[in-house]
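Figure 3 (text version): structure tokens given as input.
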């Protein structure tokens, strides 16, 4: 057992969902099919890739407090190679305000209530009690890490953890977004008949929610991101007939909110189905 693993088990026992990071701060896959990205997923992204594992195995979705998972199988080996430890703030019901530089820190000290503070390589993490939507670039040098995100564990920090203030929530509420379209073109769902890997409705719902978030978080290359996301959703959920018009409509709405046209969404969906032989 490594010193990193000792730390991980201590954090997990305290209720903090953790996961290993490589030396370049990317998450590992936690199952054999996803080790070294063999499944075709993108473990450096915020959402799992198009693997069909029995449960999410990449990034924040893999964070756990289960000591058996943390100490056995691929993760047991991953901790020996890990360069850092990460955790899922939202699952721990906290929000991390990630301040990247001195200017961002000065802004926080003048604007936000004092709370627990953790020093980072370039700046500070300010940690508040309460979970919220995550968002990058809410202002210069400031990211919000909470739900559907992960943050590096850099120690307990100093100070007392204050309740999440409205000023932090307002950072996401005020983040500029393109107008949401009123019309969404939805193609027919993928045909059913295949084996259904979904052990509960929550599995499919989680996959759709993560896909929506992946599209919402992108700031450039929206078209290619939408296509890759559609491809991932169809690969994981499209052969058993579980996808409905409502699920597809949510993905299209997310893409159109980022500037994609309804026609481009429909074309990307059709191209993804064709690529998978559907």
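Below: residues designed for each position.
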């Amino acid at each position: 057992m490594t010193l990193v693993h000792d730390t991980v088990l201590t954090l997990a026992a305290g209720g903090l969902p953790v996961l290993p990071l490589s030396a370049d701060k990317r998450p590992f896959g936690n199952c054999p099919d996803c080790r070294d990205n063999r499944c075709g997923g993108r473990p450096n992204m915020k959402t799992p890739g198009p693997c069909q594992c029995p449960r999410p195995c990449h990034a924040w979705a893999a964070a756990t407090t289960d000591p058996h998972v943390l100490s056995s199988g691929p993760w047991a080996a991953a901790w020996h190679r890990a360069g850092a430890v990460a955790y899922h703030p939202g699952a721990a019901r906290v929000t991390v305000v990630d301040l990247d530089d001195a200017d961002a820190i000065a802004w926080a000290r003048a604007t936000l209530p004092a709370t627990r503070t953790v020093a980072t390589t370039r700046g500070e993490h300010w940690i508040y009690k309460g979970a919220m939507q995550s968002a990058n670039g809410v202002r210069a040098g400031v990211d919000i890490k909470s739900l559907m995100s992960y943050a590096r564990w850099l120690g307990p920090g100093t100070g007392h953890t204050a309740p999440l203030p409205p000023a932090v929530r307002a950072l996401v509420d005020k983040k500029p977004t393109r107008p949401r379209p009123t019309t969404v073109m939805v193609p027919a769902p993928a045909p059913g008949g295949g084996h259904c890997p979904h052990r509960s409705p929550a599995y499919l719902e989680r996959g759709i929610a993560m896909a929506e978030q992946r599209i919402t978080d992108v700031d450039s290359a929206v078209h290619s991101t939408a296509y890759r996301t559609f491809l991932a959703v169809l690969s994981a959920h499209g052969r058993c007939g579980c996808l409905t018009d409502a699920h597809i409509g949510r993905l299209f709405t997310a893409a159109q909110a980022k500037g994609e046209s309804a026609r481009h969404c429909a074309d990307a969906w059709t191209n993804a189905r064709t690529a998978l032989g559907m």
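The first helix runs from residue 3 to 13.
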